[in-house]
Amino acid sequence: MTNLEKKLKNPVWYALNETHKKFRIEYDGVLFYHPEVCTFGAFNEVAKTAKTLNAYSKLSKNFFLVSENETPQIDPKRIVLEKKIEGCQMVLDHLADVKMTEQIVVLSEKYRDEIYDLIWLVMPGYYQKRSFEMGDFFGIVKDGKLVSISGQRLQTDDFIEVSAVVTHPDYTRRGYAKQLVAHTTKEILKSQKLPILHTDKGNTAIPLYEALGYKISRDMNWWFYGAK
Predict the structure, then answer these.
(1) Sheet strands side by side (includes 40-42)
(2) 225 within a domain of the structure (yes/no)
(3) What's the pLDDT tens digit per position in 7-36?
(4) pLDDT at position 1, please?
(5) Of the candidates 30, 60, 89, which is a domain's last residue?
(6) Are 210 and 1 spatial neighbours (Cβ–Cβ below 8 Å)?
(7) Together in a domain, 200 and 131
């Protein structure tokens, strides 16, 4: 197994050991993001998850553990599994040519609240306001407002994840997401890192990602927990 393959199998773990180390909270070898930034965690040893989830639940009522195929252990007196999101990881094979018809802008600090509001309108539940600090964000502005975005989330020395691909319901079916993902992918390639993304199985956006040159590489499951 190459070093890159090892990192792709546990992306949250390696992000918190490398580019995002400054956001890391550690409990006995289980790693979490600071909850104001992101409520994701990762582990190497299943036996350690129950105790550490109890500890992290004091900081955040709801949170995720991310794993390819291992099932975390929990303390059922303290923690409840809200749902398991069966997802997959996609890795760029080649970037297809995309006709760019829209002006894409780099989203500065002034857009932080608009990004948050748009993501929570379309995909509520995982994005925090300080998630803006995890990477670069790009957007399309129409009628004086931010209507479509794409950003960067998990990052290591070798890859950067495309994430937060959302479009306001009033502005869908105009090719905005396709152009934004292509643009974000190009920016990642400029940094000489591998573009990847994660999505849930059956997501209707998967054919779009495949058309752009991404291929499904492995399962990646998101265990969503709540503190009792």
Answers:
(1) 24-27, 30-33, 40-42, 62-67, 214-227, 79-92, 194-200, 159-167, 145-155, 137-142, 105-106
(2) no
(3) 999 999 999 999 999 999 999 999 999 999
(4) 61
(5) 89
(6) no
(7) yes
DSSP secondary structure letter of residue 101: -
**Do 50 and 122 share a structural domain?**
no
Residue 174: closest CA among 99, 91, 74, 81: 99
Q: Judging by DSSP bridges, how do beta strands 194-200 and 159-167 pair with one another?
A: parallel
Contacts 24+ apart (CB under 8 A), 104-108: 104/138, 104/139, 104/140, 104/179, 104/180, 104/183, 105/138, 105/139, 105/140, 105/141, 106/136, 106/137, 106/138, 107/136, 107/137, 107/138, 107/139, 107/146, 107/149, 107/151
* 103/27 same-domain check: no
The residue range of the domain holding 108 is 90-219
Distance between CA 86 and CA 219 in Å, rounded?
Answer: 8
57 and 140, same structural domain?
no
The fraction of the chain above a pLDDT of 90, given in percent, is 97
Beta bridge partners of 159: 194
Asked if residue 41 lies in contact with residue 51, where contact means CB atoms within 8 angstroms, the answer is no
Amino acid identity, residue 73? Q
45 assigned to some structural domain? yes
Give residue-wise pLDDT tens across range 147-180: 999 999 999 999 999 999 999 999 999 999 999 9
Q: Do residues 62 and 142 both lie within one domain?
A: no
